[in-house]
Structures are given as structure tokens and as C-alpha cells.
Amino acid sequence: MNPWFVWTAVANTARLSTVLQILIYLPLTLATLSTPAFLLLSLLSCIQSFIHGTMLLFWGAGQALSVMQMPIHPILLLTCFHAFSSTVHPYLATATTVWGVCLRAFGPMAIILEGMSSLLVSQKVGQVGKQLVGEGEGYQFALLIAAAVGYVTSAWVIVIAYPAAASSPLSSTMIGVALTSFVFLTIIGFALRRTNIIESSALALFISYNIWLCGFDQTSFSDPSSSYAPLIPNIVPHLQTLVNFITNTLPKPVLVALLYRLAILHFASQILPTIGADSWESEEGVDDGWDGRPTSALTRIIYHYRQLIFIMVYSHLLLLDHSSQIWWRFMNIGFTLVMWSIELLVSGDGEDDSTKWKID
Q: For residue 219, what pLDDT is reported?
């Protein structure tokens, strides 16, 4: 068997194992110990991920580092359990408190990044769709169907989620304001010929996704502490307890929000280097060409520190209760619509390559 294939399989398995450990250990610590213990594990994991990302940035041996870091997270988990098994050292208590404040302060930045990334990806989808329309009537028909499916799906999700999402007069008002603003911005964008149905349907799906999270049925998963039982030496009950924890305790809306936020940040980081690529590629001898552009450097940093971003986003989402999640979602919708309105109003009217893809 090819040694390269075996080593690649081992490295990929190590990466998957690390992700699963982070997904399970953080809510496990929060459920079985306390919030300070969870914050300590999050802090230690972030420090380890920062060191790991820095080594990747300067060393570049990604596969070897992935295998080497696999046993680190269980060690960090045991360290947290040991630290909180007796009287907690004052320095540790202070560190966890400060880290909790930092994570909560990270909330607005996460919302801004998610909203801007969602808008950027929606516009890129609209741009690609506009380019495909010019390839033939077959693409045009398929994209019209896709946009219609997007509108219908978003409307269906909003109707299904509305009874739970509109749990108070204020939240129902916020939903109405968001939907009305979206409809008016879409009409304005069509009138100014600065958007298309593909971009609009993508943003409709984004709004429906946030409203769905606001109305997620919290009774669909049990309280974290109720699914945990002391582990006994018998391996079968041990495994049953672990399966029960994974099935019932991992917060499903948090996992959905985590997956979307990481995915949209990844897509946005891939799109950023392509913005204005033609003007840079036409210049010879400017810095290092495409690789020297600021957006390319930003993408490289995000790529190497993706595990650190993953842990910070996950930790912040786990700290939020359901009511906090609702208001953060409404703020996300509002910020994205404001940014979209600004983009629609300040875009140029010319037929240059940067704007003609938005004209119907």
C-alpha cells in the first residue's frame, strides 16, 4: 500500500478526531462541571489552537501537526476536571472570568462577520448566476427555478417558524419589520437595476434561516445535566451514557449556527481574493502579484487559524441562552439589511465589469 495514502488517511482521521473532541468536550464540561470550568477548557483550547495555527503558518507541516495534537484535547479536559475537583486557584478563577468577558465581547464582531459574509456570498452567487444566464436559455430557466425554490423555501420556513419565533409582541414586530424591509429593498434594487432575483432569493434564505433559529423548539433536546450519569466500570453503560449525551445534550441550534457561521466565513474568505482580481493581475511587478494582495494574506491567516476561530465561535454560542440568541439573530438580520441597502444605494450606474452582472 502506498505510504503517502496511509499517512494522508491517518492525518485526516486525526483532524476529524480533533473536531469531534472539541464538539463534545466543551458542552460536556459545561453540563457536568460549571461555567468557569467550561471557560477554562475553552481558554486552554484557544491557546493550544493559536500555537498550532502559528506553527502551521511558519512551519507548514500540517499533517504531522494534526497527528501530534490529537491527544492534547483529552489532556486539557482532564486538566480542567482536576482543576475544578477541589478549591479553584484564584488566578484560574480570574482567568476564566476575563475570558468569559472576552467571549461575550466577541459577539458583536461575530455578528458583523457573519452578516457581511452572508451578504458577500449572496452577491457572489448573484454574480455567478448572471454570468451563467448569458451562457444560454437552459441556464436561465434553471436559475429561475432555483430562485423560485429559494423564495418558496424561505416563505415556508418563516411560516412554520413564526408561531414560536413571534413569542412576544416585540419579536413579532421585529419579524414584520425585517420582512417588510427585505421586500422594499428588493423592489428598490430591481427598480435601480442593482440586484437580481438570485441575490435576492439567497438573502431571503438567510433571513428565513435566522427566523427559524429564533423559533427553534427548545424542548426538542433535554437539559444537559439530566442526560449525564456517573460512569461505572462497566463499558456498556459507559458507552450508553456517552451515546445518550451526544444524542440529547449537544445543543442542536448551536451546532446549526456554528456550521453556518464557519461555512459562510470560509466561503467569504475564498471570495475576498477575487474582488478586483483583474486590475491586480494586469499589473506586473506590483508587490508579489496576486499573492501579495491584502485579501490574499487575510485568507491565509483565516485558513491557518481556522481551529482557533472554530473554538471561539463555538464557545460564544454555548454561552448564549435562548433569549440572547433571539436578539442576536434580529441584530444580524438588521445589520445585513442595512449593509445591503447601503450597497444598493451607493453602487454605480455604469456598465463596467464590476456592476453589469447585477443588471437584469
A: 44
